[in-house]
Design brief:
This protein has 223 residues and is an alpha/beta fold. 42% of the residues lie in helices and 21% in strands.
């Protein structure tokens, strides 16, 4: 099922979009701020994003700059041609002005999804000597393939999707919950410890850093 993320802080508009999309058979994810949208994006990658611009936290423009490899349709009340041109040149796949007709929006969505399906995409992740392929679920550290459990794979994937930031324990548990419902706060440290050991054995590097009281992050040049 095609998954669409609706990034909209107006509950009424968001509910309307969700109802329209669900009737068309789409799976809908909801985010109410720019920050929430980026967190949700890393854990449950959608096929397309409907993005408002006036958001709490990070603005729609700031969110757009961090989204790559996925079509984004800006849905905004801004009607100025300069706004549209800047956003389209800045990475948006399309722009539709509020208020809009649901049929027109659905048509624009269908066009973008059709384009995206026809394009070959690489979703592999790399960090120094680490290579992760989400499609085959293979992980390579140095020159050796590393066999990870389902939970370890989900944690590493999340950390590699956010290589420059600390991912909190709560975020890890929330964002990998769909793939690993058995991972609990009490067992998270054990999973991290096992993952760290498996990555260290073939590379002699400790790639996962614990940030005391907050969470974990990938570190460069680990030793």
């Amino acid at each position: 099922m095609t998954r669409i993320m609706v990034v909209e802080d107006d509950v009424y508009i968001g509910n309307m979009l969700e109802e329209v999309l669900c009737k068309e058979g789409y799976e809908v994810l909801r985010a109410y701020s720019g920050t929430e949208a980026l967190l949700l994006f890393t854990g449950s990658r959608p096929d397309l994003i409907l993005l408002d611009l006036m958001l709490p936290g990070l603005s729609g423009e700031e969110v757009l700059q961090q989204l790559r490899g996925i079509p984004v349709i800006v849905v905004s009340a801004r009607a100025g041609i300069d706004d549209k041109v800047d956003l389209l040149l800045g990475g948006a796949a399309d722009y539709i002005t509020k208020p809009f007709e649901p049929r027109e929006l659905l048509a624009r969505i269908a066009v973008q999804i059709r384009k995206n399906v026809s394009l070959p995409q690489s979703s592999c992740l790399d960090f120094e000597q680490l290579h992760l392929d989400p499609d085959t679920r293979q992980v390579t550290a140095g020159t050796k393939q590393v066999h990870l459990t389902r939970t370890e794979f989900a944690i590493l994937k999340l950390l590699m999707q956010n290589p420059s930031q600390v991912v909190t324990k709560t975020q890890i548990l929330d964002l990998i919950s769909l793939d690993t419902p058995d991972c609990m706060e009490s067992s998270l440290k054990v999973h991290i410890s096992n993952l760290r050991r498996k990555l260290r054995e073939p590379t002699n590097k400790d790639y996962i850093e614990a940030v005391w009281g907050i969470g974990f992050k990938l570190k460069k040049g680990g030793s």
